[in-house]
Amino acid sequence: MTMNDDTAPNDDTIAEAPAASRAPAPSADPAGAGAREAAGVSTGVLARRLGVSPTTLRSWDRRYGLGPTTRSDGGHRRWAPGDVAMAEEMCRLTASGAPPAEAARVALLRFAPHGRTAPAEEPARRPGTARPDEPPPAAAARPGGPGGGLPLGGGRHEGRGLARAAVRLDGPELDRKLLDAVRRHGLTAAWEEVMVPTLRAVGRKWETSGDRYVEVEHLLSWHVSGVLRNAPLLLSAAAPPDGAPPVVLACAPGEQHSLALEALTAVLGERRVPTRTLGAAVPAEALLACVRRTGPAAVVLWAQTRSTASAPLARHVAGLEWGAAGARRRPLVLPAGPGWDRRARAGFPHCAGLREAARLLTGLYEGAGGVQATSAR
User: pTM of the predicted model, to two decimals?
Assistant: First the structure.
């Protein structure tokens, strides 16, 4: 089962931290590096450190007074340690969803020298005109446009607004657009036609832009995960019947990508199928213990890459038995994800996407309330 999720390495975790949170490389001359840091860093250096463009830093300075307090002998901006802390706070606040003007006000209050405040709002200018110190419109950084500059490809039109909100690091807007997509189209269509195309677009942009857009991908994945986990409550899905054996969903050992499992968990919850989702990188011993303790109807084992797909583990899980003599039971094991090639998944059921997987697993349950225990083997 691929569940339309070949977003590697993009669907929920990136091993590399955002640029603003990575520790600097050790210096061969600590004293010299410290002196240079105290003297201030250039706008370009700070932009690379924070993962934003130099144009963004200059815009913050012009609009909100959030800029360097010193300049070099040649008149170039130099960001002192206090200025850097202020810019980092601005990034942190905007990434958490705060409006830029409010984020700048808070950053200035916390880190700016006494008496320094944001400038008054600029008077409106005629369309098409620009300040002398602004780049021409063709060269200006522009987060808008279809998809915020991200190549969305297919999918519903809502993906463009979702991508723009992600590029702006607008968390509240991401939640609004994701919830609206789920309410309008249902969980399955929202995942396949809105969320996945946007995740893929952000992932492709990250792969081709060096360290840029890591923060965009992390924020988007976080909000997608939150909406998926809360979707059954948002859609007022009824609780599964008591006593029905669950479906256990787990990522293979070492597999960090779990968004697709969260999507399947949400769809099964909508269909009143009980689930136990263990998440990313589940150790083999923990998975086996969960299966023995819960007696599941099925086990979904997700692998995004071939290196994490473990056919021996899948066979081991499929061979587990429980119950009284003459009524022994085994789980249905469903290897899921693009990491499982034909050879690795031989002998197991295969589903081409989220819809097929949900249909297969829901089919294990019938009877009163729409759910039954797994049949004996």
Answer: 0.59
